Amino acid sequence: MPEGDTVWYAAHRLDAALAGRVLTRADLRVPRFATADLTGRRVLGVTPRGKHLLARVEGGLTLHSHLRMDGAWRVYATGERPRGGPAHQIRAVLGNAEFTAYGYRLPVLELLRTADESQVVGHLGPDLLGPDWDPAEAVRRLAADPARPLGEALLDQRNLAGIGNVYKSELAFLAAVTPWLPVGDLGPGVPERLVATAHRLLEANKDRPDRRTTTTRRTGERLHVYGREGRPCPRCGTPVRKAESADRVTYWCPACQRGGQGARTER
């Protein structure tokens, strides 16, 4: 699932290709908006909000998309053949004289009034990569339900926007707790450190496609535990474990992360 840094990177690539330019091609391949015509309108900008993308165009309209599990936007020079996947997976095309953006496998794609953007993003908590980032408010929301497992609280975009499964696992590892530990059991100062670390990591990764949470430069060790099932924990050497539940996946070290384990399907 794309996380806040991935969405920020995609938004800024789209903004560089589309903002300030007039659309010469606009094709929304979803039944509800298939007849909408945005050609001739200037794109005002593309903005990320948590894991949401907001492309604003002249006339007070916003094209809202969400990548969820495997959606993606790809930008090509106009006239260049898109290579982001089969043509039937394309849900949106936005093009101008220089660049064309293709939205692949977008589970959420809708056209709304810019004045109504709050209807789709107004519920979000402080955006880790937003201009109005508020760490104190993020900590307050995160700690509001002390009995809630840390992993669930981190993934809840109403607490702080931008964290997905990767950062959930990595942040818990860095705090030496499991994602199943109740937030209220973290200890003094830990929520503040978690929030500060989340902000630091997303900021460090927003401008690059190859996410890294470690300081080592060894191949295959960009992350501490995520995707490293069966490999030695970088802290204590114990094999990293993996747990799956619905569309959530968690990686953790059973030896040096306190808090137990709460998923049923573990390996």
TrEMBL record:
Its cofactor is Zn(2+). The keyword DNA damage applies. GO terms for biological process: base-excision repair. This is DNA-(apurinic or apyrimidinic site) lyase. Signal peptide: none annotated. Belongs to the FPG family. It is an enzyme of class 4 (lyase). PROSITE patterns: FPG_CAT, ZF_FPG_1, ZF_FPG_2.
